[in-house]
Design a protein that fits this description.
Layout: H1 2-15, E1 20-26, E2 29-34, H2 37-49, E3 55-56, E4 63-66, H3 74-98
Antiparallel strand pairs: 1-2, 2-4, 3-4
Helix pairs in contact: 1-3, 2-3
């Protein structure tokens, strides 16, 4: 499941190279590093509105972590990946509108 989730999250990172710098991790403990810490904060809010809980790492506000339960299904991972894609698209559009 970790490889499946990593693949999905990396596909989102490839779609938004200006917003996401890296997706890294081991197993189901996965970190997503944003280009700017403010973007991460906004994306976490967007995920929350879509029913996905994520948090910052304790040592870097640019990195958001995913720590799903070991019983997560591919369908649930797909929902997370879609929610991340939608949240980043929303934030990217919003920031372009004010820049």
């Amino acid at each position: 499941m970790g490889n499946y989730m990593m693949k999905g999250l990396r596909s989102v990172a490839e779609k938004y190279p200006k917003a996401l710098e890296e997706v890294r991790g081991m197993g189901l403990m996965i970190g997503v590093e944003f280009a700017h810490e403010d973007v991460g904060e906004l994306v976490i809010g967007g995920l929350s509105r879509r029913g996905v809980i994520a948090a910052y790492t304790l040592n870097n506000p640019k990195v958001m972590r995913f720590e799903p339960p070991l019983i997560i299904t591919e369908q649930e991972i797909d929902k997370v990946v879609i929610a991340l894609d939608e949240a980043i698209a929303e934030i990217t559009e919003m920031l372009q509108g004010i820049a």
